[in-house]
Amino acid sequence: MTPMPPAIVILGQGSLATARRIQQVYPAAQILGLAGRVDGADRTYTEFGDTVRGLYRQGTPIVALCAAGIVIRTLAPLLLEKGEEPAVLAVAEDGSAVVPLLGGLGGVNVMAREIAAGLEVAAAITTSGELRFGTCLLNPPEGYVLSDLESGKRFVSDLLAGHRVRIEGAAPWLDQAQLPQDPQAQRSIHVGSDAQAVSADELRIYPRSVAVAVAVNGEGAQSIRAALQAADVALQSLACLVAADEHMSDPVLRETALELGVPLRFVAAAHDIAGLARGAVPGAKVIEVSSRMAVAVAGQPLDIAQIGRPRGRLAVIGLGPGAAELMVPAVKAELARATDVLGYETYVRMAGPFRDDQIRHCTDNREEMQRARHAFRLAAEGRSVIVVSSGDPGVFAMAAAVLEALHESNDPAWHSVELEILPGVSASLATAAQAGAPLGHDFCVMSLSDNLKPWSIIEKRLDLAAEADLALAFYNPISRARPWQLGRALEIVARHRTPQTPVVLGRDIGRPGQTLRTTTLGVLTPDQVDMRTMVLIGSSTTCTFPRAEGGEWVYTPRWYGEKPTS
Length: 566
Ligand code: SAH
Description:
Blueprint: E1 7-10, H1 16-25, E2 30-34, E3 43-45, H2 48-58, E4 62-65, H3 68-75, E5 88-91, E6 98-102, H4 108-119, H5 128-133, E7 144-146, H6 149-160, E8 165-168, E9 187-191, E10 202-207, E11 210-214, H7 221-230, E12 238-244, H8 251-260, E13 264-267, H9 273-280, E14 285-288, E15 293-297, E16 313-318, H10 329-337, E17 340-344, H11 345-351, E18 359-363, H12 368-380, E19 384-389, H13 398-408, H14 412-415, E20 418-422, H15 427-435, E21 436-437, E22 443-447, H16 455-467, E23 471-475, H17 485-494, E24 502-507, E25 515-520, E26 533-537, E27 543-546, E28 552-555
Parallel strand pairs: 1-2, 1-4, 2-3, 4-5, 8-9, 9-10, 11-12, 12-13, 16-19, 16-20, 17-18, 17-19, 21-28, 22-23
Antiparallel strand pairs: 5-6, 7-10, 11-15, 14-15, 23-26, 24-25, 24-26, 27-28
Protein name: Precorrin-3B C(17)-methyltransferase
Organism: Pseudomonas ekonensis
Keywords: Cobalamin biosynthesis, Methyltransferase, Transferase
């Protein structure tokens, strides 16, 4: 798994250049700038303390471009809480100093060195074990895990106090370390996947070198643990579960992998379970525990990316109207994990920036079904694909097209893709929120585009919805190819509404240059509207009143008919 990108937090415009240099080290990192002080950050925040504490609690690594003392004071109230902590670093505004503060096990020293290298300065490393031995024994490289931290700390302080150590097993990264090695030493660093108990004098490091192959019939985490025990292999060395392709959508397998915290990989079916394990990890020692489970033990940590393929994933996501603040966190996480991004070019650009390893497949807006099929072809190869829509993907956007493509297909590989639809804030809701609550009572959402439905049905629905006194939200109100339809629609609505009916026009809401206008049905003309506009038309109860800061509030009360007494 790629480590979580840090948040780069800055307080003033003077830090932006340094922040951008740090961002070159971590391209997926976002720069958070103090609102009103920083122009051109990726995101803004209003309260430094709450923001930094929020990031810390979420486990997001923090690079703060300010005095170390400010960061320390800000996080102090949280430091007594137990649990894993993210890396926290203070970097001088001008990039002249990089100070790792917290998160030794979150790799803070590694980050400090990476950032310092990017800024061409030296990192202020203060961890004595690391300084003396040139490596942090308690933070082994990727592919290895430490048995237990507390005894590890004791072990390192013993070495610092002058004890000598012997190394058992293969630990290539320790070759360069200046450890006080002695083949006769009582204390040992033992690197291996065996399950024997850890003695008081040893530091145990497990290579993630073991895969368990399972033939699916309800093997839960407990039976995997039992299989490892039977094979005399430590659970900590488990790197992944492997199964045959045809079990890709098996929910028990997925649960089991999740519970064990390891990835799940799929390979072509073999004639028996040992064959499956051998095919997955060539050259490994294979222990067949039962006809349903085999344990493959390799001499080295496994490179998971080389083992078969993962279950493909397809997420249809909604970006919201545009502003990053209005994007749901699940969508942000999905953007970070995607290998492939499909969508109309404007939206793909809006969803970025992407890393170099994320492939963008931009297409014309009209080719929805082709894009949906393309997405399934990629996901069926085991890739993690996102299809991007603006607003909500289920509102006149890609989610329905993707489901239609799946419904029409009888390719089992497409049906075993993990498909998820992630919602977003739709333009009607984003616009309504800015205007007040024009959709506060029953309302009707319509697209005025007759590209995919006959105009006659649009007229009929407009007529009935207006007659039913629903507030109306019009998507796709007008375009160069559909110049007259909006005028006709307004005529139909005007049959059932007074000219004083409030109308809200939101253009590019949540995007640069957004405009919000309140007008009335009587004076609204189609030339005030374009394809980037959301049109909200009130019902008979929708009303307006002046706002203190200018303009007006628009709302539709919760009640209908007689106003309830309260
Ligand atoms: N899935 C999108 C809607 C796609 S249809 C959503 O849920 O918002 C495209 C129409 O949505 C546009 O013609 C316009 O009417 C409206 N729209 C989309 N984004 C908008 C925005 N930021 N501001 C105003 N209207 C927008």
